[in-house]
Amino acid sequence: MKPWPYPLWLAHRGAGKLAPENTLAAFRVGAGFGFRAFECDVKLSRDGEAFLLHDDTLERTTGGRGSPAGIDWADLATLDAGGWHSPPFAAEPLPRFAQIAAFCQANACMLNVEIKPCPGEEARTGTAVAHAAARLWAGALPPLLSSFKPEALAAARDAEPGLPRALLLDSLWEGWPEAAEALGVVAVITNWRWMDRALIQRLHAHGWRAMVYTVNDAAVAERLIADGIDGIITDAVDTLGPAAGRQPR
Among this protein's residues, is 54 annotated catalytic? Predict the structure, then answer.
């Protein structure tokens, strides 16, 4: 397999559930627990700004309403993306992808960027996020681009073929190995419930790294580490990973 530059432990959406997900505040909290690799979700505003948000609508984690795909960045930038979590994070804004890139590079952190398109925006989002990543990390070790949406990952591949990619799987659907091959991935990231020693060995035999989300139980993590896992995404940033003495490799 090709050399693997990414740490074993990645903080989910910045800091798991200890801070408002997909915000700069969350990245600061995660870094405070020793994490040097993060996972986040990136999508596009109506006018093409790449920014961090998980859901297809704004209601759960911001003060906005509706789909961000129909709203310009200037309006999205005014939303409170922290108050829903707890009062200390009130008025925390949605971050632009460029801000996360600057934070990661200033702190020598790696990033797994989940391309998270709103419905119907798969190709547009994959293309834009890949171009942005290539520009923002020019001359630096690039982030890992991943997606549950093969269409988005294919668009990223076509836009910036030199960037590393990973296929995300919530189930082992029929044809996923062929899809991973066609997408030219370097890794496959599954729900941890699907990952075992046999699958890790199968992935490694193809030259692919094996990663999992979202592991919050120490016993599960220890099993996966013993089985040869290459990356673990966790919400438990205060009890697993660097916080538990398991230094990223």
Answer: yes
Range of the domain at 177: 9-57+96-244
Q: How many structural domains does the chain have?
A: 1
SS3 category, 231: strand
Query: Which of 12, 85, 131, 206 does the annotation list as catalytic?
Result: 12
- The question of whether 131 is a catalytic residue gets the answer no
Tokens of 90: 């009130």
Indicate whether 122 belongs to any domain.
Answer: yes
Set 54, 85, 131, 204: catalytic member: 54
The predicted-structure confidence for 19-76, as pLDDT tens digits, reads as follows: 999 999 999 999 999 999 999 999 999 999 999 999 999 999 999 999 999 999 999 9
CA atoms within 13 A on the CB side of 160: 24
> How many beta carbons lie within 10 A of that of residue 165, not counting itself?
23
**Does residue 4 fall inside a structural domain?**
no
232, 9 Cβ separation under 8 angstroms? yes
Rounded Cα distance between 40 and 143, Å, is: 11
Compute the C-alpha angle 155/214/140, nearest 5°.
50
Regarding pTM above 0.90, the answer is yes
Is the residue at 102 inside a domain? yes
Question: Is 112 among the domain residues?
Answer: yes
CATH code (residue 229): 3.20.20.190
